[in-house]
Amino acid sequence: MVEALVMSHQIHNRSIIDQFTKQAIPFSQKSQLSGEEILELMVEACGVTPEDTVLDVACGPGLTACAFAKAALRVTGIDITPAMIDRAKARQADLGLTNLTWQVGDILSLPFHDASFSLVATRYSFHHLLDPRAALAEMKRALKPGGRVMVMDAAPEPNKADAYNRMEKLRDPSHVRAMPAEELLQMAREAGLVDLKTVFCKVEYELEKTLAASFPNPGDEEKLRQIFLSDVETDALGMGAHRRGGEIHFHYPTIIIVGVKHD
Known about the structure:
Blueprint: H1 2-32, H2 36-46, E1 53-57, H3 63-69, E2 74-79, H4 82-95, E3 100-104, E4 117-123, H5 132-141, E5 143-154, H6 161-171, H7 181-190, E6 193-206, H8 207-212, H9 220-234, E7 242-244, E8 247-261
Parallel strand pairs: 1-2, 1-4, 2-3, 4-5
Antiparallel strand pairs: 5-8, 6-8, 7-8
């Protein structure tokens, strides 16, 4: 049983690395064009101070880590995809930030001692994980007592989550499952986090630009267009799909959860 779980994790990791190696450049470019207000909201929600030592788990192209680095003492970013770490280093250089370090590594086996950081954060990663609860436990392990964990992720409406997840799996084959807000909060409670704080926000995208930065399986791109065309009328995804200037726009319903490690 254990061997089967390890094999499943390894296979899924290969899927993630494949997808995000392809997405590394377009993902970082797309994200750099928008979302600064969301990043500022995230930093504010975490209450980052100049004394904080931060770990950004599944850091991608460094958007979150660099945002934290502007306010924190020191930030470490870790990601399983080497191409994403390369993009993160490039972003750091562009911004002239000197208080960042980067590592390639697995979210389920963080190469850090217990109680190493005052803030451990992850942004838009949990929906890619086979076992987000194990990842949250590992994040908490690396956190100092009294420190904060932040999880920011898509949080579809409970009655629309199945349709949302089917769509996202088409768009990104490494997608596993985004959880509704209450399920994410319950997971945080079960992990022993206290003083939970939540912030909800909407991150807006344009469909064709999103598809251009995604790598669905052959034939699925047109299926996605048809899903969103239909969703303009039905909102079955809970993403507020609408037309604007001849293009389809939509938003990702997003939650920021911040909790404290009590012991």
